Task: structure prediction
Amino acid sequence: MVVAFRRHTLLPLDDCLYALQPTIPHLTRSSLHRCLKRHGISRLPQVEGEASPKRKFKTYPIGFFHVDIAQVQTAQGKLYLFVAIDRASKFAVTQLVDKANRQTARAFLEALVAAVPYRVEIVLTDNGVQFADLPKNRSGPTARLRGHPFDRACGEQGIEHRLTKPNHPWTNGQVERMNRTIKDATVKRYHYESHDQLVRHLADFVGAYNFARRLKTLNGLTPYEFVCKRWTTEPERFRLNPLQQIPGLNT
Result:
């Protein structure tokens, strides 16, 4: 079973371990590696033209969120998907809206702050008009006086708003990857007759991701388990006790 799973999925060692442990509770990383090595499949085949080693993001404490917007479609028409993901915990927050403008961007920021049990300290966005004025309009006295609605909302919440460099979309790559993950699990796989169907499925998917999906980058923890672990070492960063927000049988 283990060998067939590896050959079929070509998943890395740790991802194989997390996927198989619910079925084989006694399975350990070392025993899995020995099994794969014995059958000659401990190394994944090299992909032709594989990219050079990836550089890691600078380490940040929890509270640094990448934010982006994506467009999705149902039979009813077009929707816009706001997505935020924490650089450290990988905890994600989403919201579907009819329009992507300054007002909905501000409302999403407020929803993000309410959804996360710890303080949101930094938000990184692109230079879209939902988040920032055009570069030519940012330095004038009127712009400095009124400020962009998203910037004002960040200031009210004590959040530092950072912008990606123009023409450098990879700076916000974490949230763009999350956008692709969400689309692959929803609109690219299923047909939705209504917006409500997508809203419900998206909520189920994000809940499962935050509370049940074990990530290699978090050493096998789910995003929310990582958050709870940080609660024990850095309680000063939290607004609420995250242990009281874990979904139970009645949620």
Remarks:
- The chain has a mean pLDDT of 86.
- DSSP finds nine helices and five strands in the chain.
- The first strand starts at residue 64 and ends at 74.
